[in-house]
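seq as requested:
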Amino acid sequence: MDSTTQERDEQGTDVLRPRVVDSIRILLPRVLGRDVPPPAESACLFDEVGLTSAHTLSLLLELEEELDIQIDVEEIGQDDLGSLGSLADFVASHAVEG
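struct tokens:
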């Protein structure tokens, strides 16, 4: 990847990430089926928010629809699901425009 392509990808990630964070906060109550106060980026999605594996899949699908993107989840790891911020980083860096 040349430096111009890498710079363009980084700018795209920088633009998408805040939208991902906002969308996660909006979608969590729908995915969880209950009211959830907007979590901080450092909030642990499983322990503090109550996300399960099934909820995670639903959240990723909802994010794809909400943001009109496709998320390449083949490389997602446990660390990427640790907090709202780490999930937002993963999604922003592994999204392909739908």
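Residues 1-8 have pLDDT under 50 and may be disordered.
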